[in-house]
Automatic annotation (TrEMBL):
Keyword Metal-binding belongs to the record: yes
EC number: 2.7.9.1
Domain PEP-utilising enzyme mobile span(s) in chain numbering: 418-500
Lineage: Bacteria, Bacillati, Actinomycetota, Actinomycetes, Kitasatosporales
Catalytically driven reaction(s): pyruvate + phosphate + ATP = phosphoenolpyruvate + AMP + diphosphate + H(+)
Domain named PEP-utilising enzyme C-terminal: residues: 536-885
Limits of the Pyruvate phosphate dikinase AMP/ATP-binding domain: 18-68, 70-285, 294-343
Cofactor(s) it depends on: Mg(2+)
Protein name: Pyruvate, phosphate dikinase
Pfam families the UniProt entry points to: PEP-utilizers, PEP-utilizers_C, PPDK_N
InterPro entries: ATP_grasp_subdomain_1 (IPR013815), PEP-util_enz_mobile_dom (IPR008279), PEP_util_AS (IPR018274), PEP_util_C (IPR000121), Phosphohistidine_dom_sf (IPR036637), PPDK_AMP/ATP-bd (IPR002192), Pyruvate_phosphate_dikinase (IPR010121), Pyrv/PenolPyrv_kinase-like_dom (IPR015813)
Length: 889
């Protein structure tokens, strides 16, 4: 029989799929002997069954009541017992952390009777009524669907009436009155009464948590974080402990290290006399955790000890929620904490130094995406001017945008391409769409553990929080700084998430420390720890990786940069840009040539220019392979725009003038060459077979450039690559011409030219006949952009704007197949081509030169598929090195 409920004493951290992250870690802490309030977990399986059928799986409530009875027996009182009620929290918790995205309901078991019992046993009427009003509020909003702003307004109204600022200044009778108001609100809004039966409260709360899996913000968060929609959430039912029992109680959040920088130290926020949700919500201003030492030294020491235990046990940065009830410390949650990219690198290096993890584990803990983030530019410190405000540097990076004050406005403006900065007092899960749309998030309240900080860090968004000197007036759509400067919606500001500062206007950017290191080597001032940690991760990756990393580069400058970034050659040198600019004239002449002689003249003029291009690149990559692709795009791309020509001619005619003869000739050519589907038209190898002299000229330019480099004492390693081959006969014809020209050049110059000839595999037919193609190809390079287009039948230029967002919404795919290689379809073709190509030619060199070569997930695939190298843009080279290393672990 399936089992749906596990006691905290039965689970463990390896059961996150079944018990959720929170449940499995609560169990783990229980096993470690840490003080965790007892409880049990309803499995994700129960949730899935409920969501699939709309009703609870048979046997669920039987199991729940058995576990509840055990809990009641050990507590010596029962749920909602009128004279001394056992109270429970009902907490969501999925396999992957989704902070604040689903529901949690506290203080289950209170009603009009037990609130009086609680008041008596606790000796605090105020506490009892405060707990009750929290329950009615949470239950009303979460389970009964009343808009939570109603409750907030009622609370604000009461505070105004009493003339107090903080919730804590409301008296017991104020709070009792508030409970009545809340209950009336619920009745008015739903026609239903707040349930007095503790068992009913529990049951409905559990189902509401199940349902919150499909809440709008949970779904949005999952899409953004690529979390599967069918996992479901577990539900943790746990005995309540109380942080709101007066000054010797409180709640807090802590990190075992700084989640923003990874450095050692004490990081966290503490709020005396409060329940846990107040800390994260930023309702009141917290104090730094270090304060707790002064307030309650014994609890502080115990907390520190538990934090050390957890960090050693998990061998990683942990984040923790805790509550102190009248001097007794309780651990309410832990998990391996989300961290910034910088922190991930620093932490990995430090944990390795401390011997807690091996160098390979350290490499596994960092990511190419994180490295890419550290390569983003920073603000130029000499150009920032005076800060408008300072706050907590919660999530690093530099962002410029116009100020907006709510989520809707952020989404609205971002949709039309505006860069925005979302400014809030504090964020709530409802702000998620705006946070996703914004470049940066700025709040006036809350610390490193606030909702804004946690979510922004998870998404890699810039965030400054707790900028307390700001007065944010959302209704008036403006904020005011300490010196009275008013900043209206629509004003441009620059947010520095690394320094925790906000500047007026758009501050110019400079290279990040990591880029400076990659460009110039070590020895830079500042950010030393980070740079050092990145250097160590890269060097470990270089040691363990099997895949080589090359760059896609078309100019000597790009080639040189790629080399500094660690590229081991060029995997794709496109020749099309060499036909642009002032060379267009020559290309036009070639296309329009009426006779062979005219065409040969145009090609002869192009030859020395191409030779110079190639020689420069070969020099920059001296000693390393440079794969040069013969011309790929359709020739009409080099001609002027059809409409432009037509308009010019028509205008001349309208003025009664004779149109320019060259324009007329060009328009004729453009019309002749027009293609409905240029992507599938006369391009790639087809050009080489149809346009006389083109391949000959390009190969001669390559051969002469190699000769020139050899004579200069260099070690050029040119490889000639033929694009868009679909059949071995195409390649055979072109290759014969390539070899003829190379032999001729070689004879003329008296040097040996050894240039391998290979092909791109970018059509399904090429992949499917790779065994034949390998008879003529000395290497393969997967052109995964075209291969994705042609496999899916998507035109990349058209679909990305049109229907991809709908496809993403509907879950047809979770990332664009142009970003991350589609393993199932395109990947299968890659697998076939590798196997069949190597069957024909065992030493066939195989690489990839599509955009996917720099995408982390795809790099892992190419490693597994047995490729020899990936090639990507120069800035992605370090990312690919790192991921190639991680793939080899
Ligand atoms: P989230 O996943 O959004 O963090 P949690 O389930 O952790 O939600 O609960 C929200 C808040 O309620 C937390 O701050 C936590 O400390 C508090 N809380 C949860 N369970 C208990 C409990 N048994 N006793 C006291 N506070 C609790
Ligand atoms: Mg929590
Ligand atoms: Mg292509």
């Amino acid at each position: 029989m399936v089992r749906y409920v596990y006691d905290f004493t039965e689970g463990g951290r390896d059961m996150a799929g079944l018990l959720g992250g929170k449940g499995s870690n609560l169990a783990e802490m229980t096993r470690l002997g840490l003080p965790v309030p007892p409880g049990f977990t309803l499995t994700t399986e129960a949730c899935r069954a409920f969501l699939a059928t709309g009703s609870e799986p048979a046997g669920l409530w039987g199991e729940v009541s058995a576990h509840l009875s055990a809990l009641e027996a050990s507590a010596g009182r029962v749920l909602g017992q009128p004279d001394d009620p056992l109270l429970l929290s009902v907490r969501s918790g999925a396999k992957f952390s989704m902070p604040g995205m689903m529901e949690t309901i506290l203080d289950i078991g209170l009603n009009d009777g037990s609130v009086l019992g609680l008041a008596k046993v606790s000796g605090s009427e105020r506490f009892a009524w405060d707990s009750y009003r929290r329950l009615v509020q949470m239950f009303g909003a979460t389970v009964m669907g009343v808009d939570s702003s109603h409750f907030e307004q009622a609370l604000t109204l009461l505070k105004d009436l009493r003339g107090v600022e903080e919730d804590t200044h409301l008296t017991a009778s104020d709070l009792a009155e508030l409970v009545e108001t809340y209950k009336n609100l619920i009745h008015l809004e739903t026609g239903d009464r707040f349930p007095q039966s503790p068992a009913e409260q529990l049951r409905r709360a559990v189902l509401a948590v199940f349902e919150s899996w499909n809440g709008e913000r949970a779904r949005l968060y999952r899409r953004r974080e690529h979390i599967a929609d069918d996992l479901g959430t577990a539900v943790n039912v746990q005995r309540m402990v109380f942080g709101n029992l007066g000054a010797d109680s409180g709640s807090g959040v802590a990190f075992t290290r700084d989640p923003a920088t990874g450095r050692r130290g004490l990081y966290g926020d503490y709020l005396p006399d409060a329940q846990g949700e107040d800390v994260v919500a930023g309702i009141r201003n917290t104090v730094p955790l270090a304060e707790l030492r002064r307030l309650d030294a014994a609890s502080y020491d115990r907390l520190r000890a538990h934090m050390r235990t957890l960090e050693r046990h998990y061998r990683d940065l942990c984040d923790i929620e805790f509550t102190i009830e009248r001097g007794t410390l309780w651990m309410l949650q832990t998990r391996v904490g989300k961290r910034t990219a910088e922190a991930a690198f620093v932490l990995a290096a430090e944990l390795a130094d401390e011997g807690l993890i091996t160098p390979d584990e350290a490499l596994a803990r960092v990511s190419g995406e994180g490295l890419a983030r550290l390569m983003f530019p920073r603000f130029d410190a000499s150009a920032t001017g005076t800060a408008l405000a300072r706050g907590v540097p919660a999530s690093p990076g530099a962002a410029v945008g116009t100020v907006v004050f709510d989520s809707a406005q952020a989404v609205h403006r971002a949709a039309v391409g505006e860069k925005v900065v979302l400014v809030r007092q504090e964020t709530t899960p409802d702000d998620l769409p705006g946070m996703i749309a914004a470049q940066a998030v700025l709040t006036s309240r809350g610390g490193k553990t606030s909702h804004a900080a946690v979510v922004a860090r998870g998404m890699g968004k810039v965030c400054v929080c707790g900028a307390e000197e700001l007065t944010v007036n959302t209704d008036a759509r403006r904020f005011t700084t300490a010196d009275g400067t008013v900043v209206e919606e629509g004003t441009v500001v620059s947010v520095d998430g690394s320094a925790g500062a906000v500047y007026p206007g758009s501050v110019p950017l400079v290279d990040s420390a990591v880029i400076r290191y990659l460009e110039d080597g070590p020895g830079d001032e500042g950010a030393q720890g980070t740079v050092d940690a990145v250097a160590r991760a890269l060097s470990r990756a270089d040691t363990v990786r099997r895949l080589e990393v090359r760059a896609n580069a078309d100019t000597p400058e790009d080639a040189a940069r790629a080399r500094r970034f660690g590229a081991q050659g060029i995997g794709l040198c496109r020749t099309e840009h060499m036909f642009l600019g002032e060379r267009r004239k020559l290309v036009e002449q070639m296309i329009l040539a009426g006779t062979d002689a005219e065409r040969d003249r145009a090609l002869a003029d192009l030859l020395p220019l191409q030779r110079r291009d190639f020689a420069g690149i070969l020099e920059a990559m001296d000693g390393l392979p440079v794969t040069i692709r013969l011309l790929d795009p359709p020739l009409h791309e080099f001609l002027p725009d059809r409409t432009e020509l037509a308009v010019r001619i028509a205008t001349a005619q309208a003025r009664g003038e004779e149109p320019d003869a060259h324009d007329v000739e060009l328009l004729g050519a453009v019309n002749r060459m027009h293609e409905e589907n240029p992507m599938l038209g006369l391009r790639g190898v087809r050009l080489g077979l149809v346009v006389p002299g083109l391949v000959t000229m390009q190969v001669r330019a390559i051969g002469e450039a190699v000769t020139e480099r050899l004579l200069a004492g260099g070690a050029p390693q040119a490889e000639i690559m033929v694009p868009l081959v679909g059949d071995v006969r195409e390649l055979r014809l072109v290759r014969a011409e390539v070899q003829r020209v190379l032999a001729e050049t070689s004879r003329a110059a008296g040097v040996v030219l050894d240039c391998p000839v290979g092909t791109m595999i970018e059509l399904p037919r090429a992949a499917l006949t790779a065994g034949r193609i390998a008879e003529e190809a000395e290497f393969f390079s997967f052109g995964t952009n075209d291969l994705t287009q042609t496999t899916w039948g998507f035109s990349r230029d058209d679909v990305e704007a049109e229907f991809f967002s709908a496809y993403l919404d509907k879950g047809v795919f979770s990332t664009s197949p142009f970003e991350t290689l589609d393993r199932e379809g395109v990947g299968r073709l890659v697998g076939i081509a590798v196997a069949e190509g190597r069957a024909t030619r065992p030493d066939l060199k195989i690489g990839v030169c599509g955009e996917h070569g720099g995408d982390p997930d795809s790099v892992h695939f190419f490693h597994t598929a047995g490729l020899d190298y990936v090639s990507c843009s120069p800035f992605r080279v370090p990312v690919a090195r790192l991921e190639a290393g991680r793939a080899a672990l």
